[in-house]
From TrEMBL:
One of its GO terms (cellular component) is endoplasmic reticulum membrane. Signal peptide: none annotated. The chain crosses the membrane at residues 58-77, 83-105, 149-168, 174-192. Residues 1-10 have a biased composition (Low complexity). It is found in: Endoplasmic reticulum membrane. Residues 47-244 form the Reticulon domain. This is Reticulon-like protein. The keyword Transmembrane applies. Pfam families: Reticulon (PF02453). GO terms for biological process: response to bacterium. It comes from the Eukaryota. Its main location: endoplasmic reticulum. The gene is LOC102595147. The lineage of its organism: Eukaryota, Viridiplantae, Streptophyta, Embryophyta, Tracheophyta.
């Protein structure tokens, strides 16, 4: 018997494993190529957007909340605990009704995944607080030690004006005025920044001119007084010599 041995030169069929690996790699590429959703801005960015009215809904809510708190505590004479309890009851009832309406309409439940405080936001807030304290200390040092008469006089005038205004108002009203000013002045400044800077530069130049003029007058009066004192001393010495 003749046994015929045939060797197949054809390559063996590819194993399905590389195809699966290729599919997995393509899936990884598509997943990495797809844009990641925006997780959200930091707390400082959100506060900046609220102050500059880039998020008008949040800015309006902040202004209305501050107004309602001021009216409740200052005008209607409510206590802080009573007002806080009413606000908490309203928020809980609104959240309960909103969640039940979503369930009745067959919609997805509320996404509460973003309701957390991240480590980055806490570190960012701590850094901002440290920077503000350092800037305050530097400003205090520059005002108290360096010879910047304009900044020194402006700081004293601002503190004096604040003390006078605070004598007629209480702390709650001052805080409310501060919130209203904080929600209005930065927007106006950003909108008319060039004009305000130009006006501030003109005022600063005029103040420096007046300051130099006043200092020259003071030096001139000091010189005249010193000359008169010298003349009086010389006359007194001459009289003493004559009497002797």
């Amino acid at each position: 018997m003749q046994i015929s041995t045939t060797t197949s030169t054809d390559s063996p069929p590819p194993s399905p494993t590389p195809q699966l690996e290729n599919h997995s790699e393509s899936n990884l590429q598509t997943s990495t190529a797809s844009p990641t959703p925006d997780v959200g801005k930091t707390s400082t960015d959100i506060i900046r957007d609220v102050i500059l009215w880039k998020r008008k809904s949040y800015s309006v809510v902040a202004l209305l909340a501050a107004t309602a708190i001021w009216l409740g505590l200052e005008v209607y004479g409510l206590t802080f605990i009573t007002l806080f309890s009413w606000i908490a009851m309203f928020v809980i009832a609104f959240t309960f009704l909103w969640g039940n309406i979503h369930m009745l309409l067959g919609k997805d439940p509320l996404d509460m995944s973003r309701m957390y405080i991240s480590d980055e936001s806490v570190v960012d807030a701590g850094t901002k607080f440290r920077e503000s304290v350092e800037n305050s200390l530097r400003f205090l040092f520059s005002v108290s030690t360096k010879r910047e008469w304009f900044v020194f006089a402006g700081t004293l005038a601002s503190l004096g004006l604040l003390s006078v205004v605070a004598s007629y108002l209480d702390l709650l009203t001052l805080l409310y005025i501060g919130i209203v000013v904080g929600l209005t002045v930065p927007v106006v400044y950003v909108k008319y920044e060039d004009k305000i800077k130009d006006l501030g530069q003109r005022v600063r130049v005029r103040c420096h001119i007046y300051n130099s003029a006043v200092m020259e007058r003071c030096h001139m009066y000091y010189r005249t007084i010193a000359e008169r004192v010298k003349k009086m001393k010389s006359k007194l010495q001459q009289k003493k010599k004559k009497n002797e």
